[in-house]
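Box S1 | Example of a co-folding query
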Amino acid sequence: MSSANPCLTCGACCAFFRVSFYWGETLSDFLVPESLTEPVSPAKMAMQGTNQAQPRCIALEGEVGGCVSCSIYLNRPSPCREFEAFDAEGACNRARAAYGLPPLAA
Ligand code: SF4
Ligand code: SF4
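Box S1 (continued) | Returned holo structure for iron/sulfur cluster
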């Protein structure tokens, strides 16, 4: 069985959910690049491309299900840092299913 990180050939969660977070996460050069965000409420920003009917984060490089990466990985916002990868019963597999990708076991 391969031990490769399945996220590297997936990216479904980056093209399935709205990625919103407290605007203060854009305040420093070391945090989320503001130029890649848009306001969604007085206190919240979202990654551009994720606040729409068919989301796709502007920072996602590659095609879902292929070789993908996050162009701001070290500066990605908190929802991305906290997202539970390989959550067999949860959001990860829901996103994968939307792209016809097989579920991951817990
Ligand atoms: S949907 Fe799951 S496997 Fe795919 S990139 Fe996101 S966390 Fe990784
Ligand atoms: S910032 Fe990176 S990890 Fe977060 S949704 Fe966008 S591409 Fe995915």
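Residues 6-98 form one domain. Helices lie at 78-82, 91-98.
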